[in-house]
C-alpha cells in the first residue's frame, strides 16, 4: 500500500513538473518570439539605416534615362562649296553666301540665268529715216503687195507657187557657191554644185527639189555674202531700212551689191523686164508667207523696234551657226594632220 501510494505521489509530482515546464515554455515563448523578431530586425537594420542616411545626405547618382522626346541639338546643314565664278554680280565674281540657306532655289536660278541668251543690239543712228522707210514699206505691203499676193494665191495653186520659189532659189546658186568658196567650205561648195546640177536636170530647171530627198540627202544651205563677211569679223554696223527691200544693215547692204552681180536675173534687159521678174518673185514669196508679218506687228508694242530686233537676232544666229560649223570643220581637218605628224 505504501509502495503504491509512493508511486502515485511520484506520478502526480511528475505530472506537476511537466505541467509547470509546459507552462514555463508557454510563458517564455512570447519572449523568445519577441527576441527572434528583434534579432531579425537588427540583422537588417544596418543596411536600411545606411540606405536611409545615404538618401538623405547625398543625392542619388544620375541615371541614364530615356526620354520619349529627347532634346535634339540642331544639326548644321552640310556646307556647299560654291565657286566664285558661279555667281556674277555687277560684273565682279563673288561667292554666293546665300547658297547654304536657299539650296536648290539658287541652283535653279543659276541655271535659268545661265540659259538666258544675251540680247543683240545694233546702232540705229538713222532712226528717223528708217522709221519713214518702215511706214512706206508697211503701206506698200497692206495696200499693194498683200492684195496682189492674195489674188495670185487664189488663182495659182500652192504646189505651183512652191515650184516657182524653188526655181528662183535654184537660180541663186552662184551666190551660195561663191559664199562657200570665200568661206573655204569646199565640201559645202561641192554640195551646192551637186544640188544645182541635179535640180536643174532632174528637177525640170529647179521647179522641183529632188536633191533634198533622203536618197541624195543634199539639203538646202542657208548661206549668203553677208554671212561671209561676218565670218571674217565684219560687224553689223548700223541699222538701215531700204525701200521695198526692207530691213538691213551696213554689212548686209554691201551684200546686196554683190548679190546683184551674182544673180542671173540682174542681167535681164531691158531694165523694166528685170524689175518685173523681181516683182513677180516677191509676189510669189509673199503669197506663201501671208500672216507672218501681221502676227509680228500685232504682238509688238512698237513694230519698228520689234522688226529691227528680230532682224538682228536672226542674222546673228545665222552667223553663229556658220562660225561654229566652220570651226568644227577646221578642227576635223587638223586632227588627221596631227596624227600624221606623231606617226
Average pLDDT, rounded to a whole number, is: 76
- Proportion of β residues? under 5%
- Overall morphology: globular
Radius of gyration: 54 Å
Helix and strand element order: HEEHHHHHHHEEHHHH
Q: Look at the helices and sheets and give the structural class.
A: mainly alpha
Distance from first to last alpha carbon: 158 Å
Kindly describe this structure.
Helix 5 crosses helix 10, helix 6 packs antiparallel against helix 7 and helix 8 packs across helix 9. The protein has 343 residues and is mainly alpha-helical. About 26% of the residues have low confidence. Helix content is 66%, strand content 3%. The strands form two sheets. A two-stranded antiparallel sheet has the order 1-2. It starts with a helix and ends with a helix. Among the domains are: 32 residues, no CATH class; 205 residues, no CATH class. Strand 1 and strand 2 form a beta hairpin.
Write the topology of this structure.
Layout: H1 2-57, E1 88-89, E2 92-93, H2 99-102, H3 104-115, H4 127-155, H5 158-171, H6 173-182, H7 186-201, H8 225-231, E3 239-242, E4 246-249, H9 250-262, H10 271-287, H11 292-299, H12 303-342
Antiparallel strand pairs: 1-2, 3-4
Helix pairs in contact: 4-10, 5-10, 6-7, 8-9
Quick structural gist:
66% of the residues lie in helices and 3% in strands. With 343 residues, the protein is mostly helical. β3 (239-242) and β4 (246-249) form a beta hairpin.
Amino acid at each position: 500500500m505504501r509502495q503504491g501510494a509512493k508511486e502515485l505521489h511520484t506520478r502526480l509530482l511528475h505530472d506537476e513538473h511537466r505541467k509547470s515546464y509546459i507552462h514555463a515554455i508557454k510563458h517564455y515563448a512570447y519572449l523568445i518570439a519577441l527576441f527572434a523578431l528583434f534579432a531579425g530586425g537588427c540583422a537588417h537594420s544596418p543596411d536600411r539605416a545606411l540606405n536611409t542616411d545615404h538618401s538623405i545626405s547625398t543625392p542619388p547618382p544620375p541615371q541614364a534615362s530615356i526620354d520619349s522626346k529627347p532634346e535634339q541639338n540642331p544639326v548644321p546643314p552640310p556646307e556647299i562649296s560654291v565657286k566664285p565664278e558661279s555667281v556674277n554680280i555687277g560684273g565682279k565674281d563673288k561667292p554666293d553666301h546665300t547658297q547654304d540657306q536657299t539650296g536648290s532655289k539658287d541652283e535653279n536660278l543659276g541655271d535659268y540665268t545661265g540659259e538666258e541668251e544675251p540680247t543683240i543690239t545694233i546702232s540705229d543712228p538713222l532712226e528717223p529715216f528708217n522709221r519713214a522707210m518702215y511706214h512706206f514699206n508697211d503701206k506698200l505691203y497692206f495696200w499693194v503687195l498683200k492684195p496682189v499676193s492674195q489674188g495670185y494665191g487664189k488663182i495659182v495653186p500652192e504646189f505651183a507657187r512652191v515650184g516657182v520659189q524653188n526655181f528662183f532659189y535654184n537660180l541663186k546658186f552662184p551666190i551660195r557657191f561663191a559664199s562657200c568658196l570665200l568661206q573655204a567650205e569646199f565640201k559645202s561648195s561641192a554640195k551646192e554644185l551637186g544640188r544645182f546640177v541635179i535640180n536643174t536636170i532632174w528637177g525640170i530647171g529647179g521647179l522641183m527639189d529632188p536633191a533634198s530627198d533622203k536618197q541624195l540627202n543634199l539639203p538646202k544651205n542657208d548661206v549668203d555674202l553677208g554671212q561671209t563677211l561676218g565670218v571674217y569679223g565684219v560687224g553689223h554696223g548700223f541699222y538701215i531700212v531700204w525701200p521695198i527691200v526692207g530691213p538691213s544693215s551696213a554689212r548686209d547692204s554691201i551684200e546686196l551689191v554683190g548679190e546683184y552681180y551674182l544673180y542671173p536675173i540682174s542681167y535681164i534687159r531691158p531694165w523694166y523686164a528685170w524689175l518685173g521678174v523681181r516683182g513677180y518673185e516677191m509676189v510669189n514669196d509673199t503669197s506663201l508667207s501671208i500672216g507672218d508679218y501681221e502676227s509680228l506687228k500685232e504682238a509688238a508694242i512698237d513694230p519698228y523696234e520689234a522688226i529691227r530686233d528680230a532682224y538682228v537676232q536672226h542674222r546673228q544666229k545665222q552667223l553663229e551657226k556658220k562660225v561654229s560649223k566652220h570651226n568644227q570643220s577646221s578642227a576635223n581637218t587638223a586632227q588627221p594632220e596631227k596624227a600624221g605628224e606623231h606617226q
